DNA sequence: TGTACATCAGTGAACGCGCGTTCACTGATGTAC
DNA sequence: TGTACATCAGTGAACGCGCGTTCACTGATGTAC
């Protein structure tokens, strides 16, 4: 039974919250079988509803997938934002927390992660999806700006570039080693350690690590 | 017509090279519609052959996909190896070439790239796939060892870690920005520039950039 | 408070479709003698 | 060189299946008066 309710029986002819139930079902299926192994019909079955019912809420399978991905990006942005916690107590420490949050999201929410990055949806065709992705990136970018704030202007690297570098690094580690559904390759160290070490070395190369800790 | 032959007609009852033709068809289909949008039946149709014919060459769809991915890793390793060119004329320059080759592969061979990294095949279940992936990584690892050779032993970082860092960075950039099939997000600089800058900064942080150029 | 009515959110039957898979078969190819 | 035979690599028909989608329908809910 996928729909909520204490008594274990449908409350009536109407489901009550089918839209949410379909999204939950989609997440379960994507988590189990990857973004390809999820069909409109099976999501309906999971929600305990006829195959025609989902059409009241989503135009087609892609629309449902896009909504899952959008929610994923929003949850992702929230998690990163919470980890950043306005850069307290120090921006470097907070940036490490953001990196951990990135990896934690990939590990704990593999279904969202798949829908966001591997579902084959083109962000250009789904405006809200694109915007939600931008909001998540903006958190990382804001963090990098704060981190660089103490660097003298004449030798301050562009925050945009730094944010792209750290995003790419985090994403690469998450994709290659940090997935929850299947450990892709064994590592001599944890993904978290790998990311933290790389971040430190990179910031050292920028010459901002020491300052950022102060 | 997918099978080779000058006259444009099947040479006879036998295809002659169906195995290759199926792999070519799979690559076309994956390139067009992603790793999910490829079926055994459609690959057969592309090869101009009945739906039952592929079973003479592959146990099932997954076996064909795994073979595509394995070939992808082997081609990938060759490209990286050629780009490295034994570290000539200097290891840093050669390492940049390897990075460019990584991005070029993702852009020019999106079908292979998808099959290798996004097809949902578990490397643990396909030994040859795992081994082929290791051979590709070994090229990068060898490059990092050469790059670090001039660093005094007491402050030399582990080549394994450096290779993992650079692989992750390259893979992240390729996944997020460098795909040939769909430009995922606009960038203020090219993926190549982004990767090259990150590599330089990172190596600077390791304290090996200057030595490596010499 | 009750009633009539509009709207909403489901049902379930039906359809065409393509896929995966099996099967007995047969044309083509290679080889032993 | 010819012939018999084994093996290989295809065919094409058939099957069950699940999916996507449409449709007229109907039970449930909300609201105007």
When the domains of chain A are counted, the total is 2
| Poorly predicted segments of chain A | 1-10
Count of DSSP E strands of chain A?
A: 0
What is the architecture of the largest domain in chain A at the second tier of CATH? Orthogonal Bundle
Tally of contiguous helical segments of chain A: 9
CATH topology of the largest domain in chain A: Tetracycline Repressor, domain 2
CATH class of the largest domain in chain A: Mainly Alpha
Question: How far apart are the termini of chain A?
Answer: 53 Å
- What is the helix content of chain A? 55-70%
Mean pLDDT of chain A: 89
| Beta content of chain A | under 5%
Largest interface (C-beta under 8 Å): A-B, 42 and 43 residues
SSE topology string of chain A = HHHHHHHHH
Q: What class do helices, strands and sheet pairing of chain A give?
A: mainly alpha
Main sheet attributes: strand count, strand direction, barrel closure of chain A: none
**Rg calc of chain A:** 20 Å
Looking at the structure, what is the overall shape of chain A? elongated
Q: Write the CATH homologous superfamily of the largest domain in chain A.
A: Tetracycline Repressor, domain 2
